[in-house]
Structure formats: structure tokens, C-alpha cells
Design a protein that fits this description.
Layout (H helix, E strand, L loop, with lengths): L1 H43 L5 E4 L4 E6 L9 E6 L2 E5 L4 E6 L7 H20 L5 H16 L3 H8 L4
Antiparallel strand pairs: 1-2, 1-5, 2-3, 3-4
Length: 158
């Protein structure tokens, strides 16, 4: 009966430690989710995005600085009517701006372009026209055409 006596003496302490661990874990998870939501809202708060302000007004972002939150955001609430609000007064994004390229998208596109250029320079990647030319060359070689006949076949018909 040593186990029963151990739990009788220390059961409350074990239970309290378990609750503390659970509270710590759940608060960290909630804080991480809130931080991700704030970052997502900052990425979507771009000119052209329709937003809901904390006062209940709907509008379209005209100007917003996501890095300096002390600068006011300019929101158009009616055609030609632009108001300045605190940048944190944006409650949520109703309709994200379509076709607007964020800085993250631009950086990703630059990196992809640099990788493509490096791949072409190394010979790892070929262009579509190079692939078509190689396929035609293979077809002509299989057909037993000479270089002159091959050049005539590749020349556009007038």
C-alpha cells in the first residue's frame, strides 16, 4: 500500500504541477497563433484591400505602413472620402487585394528567377525553344534527313 499512501500524500502536488504544465503549454500555443494572425493581417493590409475598422466602418486601404504602426492608415470609406485612422484600428481584412504583389511575393519571384538563370547558365535547365529544337533534331535524325534537308524542314513555310 505504499503507492496508495504516496498518492494520498503527494497527489495534490502532482495534480497542481500537471495543471501548471498544461496552462503553460496552452498559453504558448495561443500566443503563437495570435502572432501568426497578426503577421497574416499585416501581409494582407495593402492598398486595395477592403477592411473592417474597429468602429464598424468598412473601407478600402489607400495607404498603410505595416512596419511603422505609429503612422496613420489612410482608408477610403466612400469614393473620394479618405480618412486617417490609427493603423491598429483595422479589425480585419474583408476582401484581400487581388493582383497586388506584396514584398514577400516579389522577393520570392526574384529568388526563383535567380535560380532559373543559374540553372540555364549551368546547363541544368533548358528553355522551351531549346527543347523543341532538340526534339525536331531527334525526329529528323531518326528520319535519316541530311543537314540541308533538315534546314529546309525547319524553315517556316511562306
Amino acid at each position: 500500500m505504499d503507492i496508495a499512501r504516496f498518492f494520498a500524500d503527494y497527489g495534490i502536488i502532482i495534480l497542481l504541477i500537471g495543471l501548471l504544465v498544461f496552462m503553460f503549454y496552452s498559453s504558448r500555443r495561443r500566443m503563437k497563433k495570435q502572432k501568426a494572425d497578426i503577421e497574416q493581417k499585416a501581409r494582407e493590409t495593402v492598398p486595395g484591400a477592403e477592411v473592417l475598422l474597429q468602429g464598424g466602418l468598412y473601407g478600402t486601404i489607400v495607404e498603410y505602413d505595416g512596419e511603422d504602426l505609429d503612422k496613420p492608415a489612410h482608408v477610403e470609406i466612400a469614393p473620394g472620402v479618405v480618412i486617417k485612422v490609427h493603423s491598429q484600428a483595422v479589425l480585419r481584412i474583408v476582401n484581400p487585394a487581388e493582383g497586388f504583389v506584396t514584398e514577400d511575393d516579389f522577393i520570392d519571384a526574384e529568388e526563383a528567377e535567380a535560380e532559373y538563370i543559374a540553372g540555364v547558365a549551368d546547363g541544368d535547365i533548358t528553355s522551351i525553344s531549346d527543347d523543341r529544337r532538340a526534339a525536331r533534331h531527334d525526329e529528323h535524325t531518326e528520319a535519316g534527313l541530311t543537314d540541308a534537308e533538315r534546314a529546309d524542314k525547319d524553315r517556316p513555310q511562306v
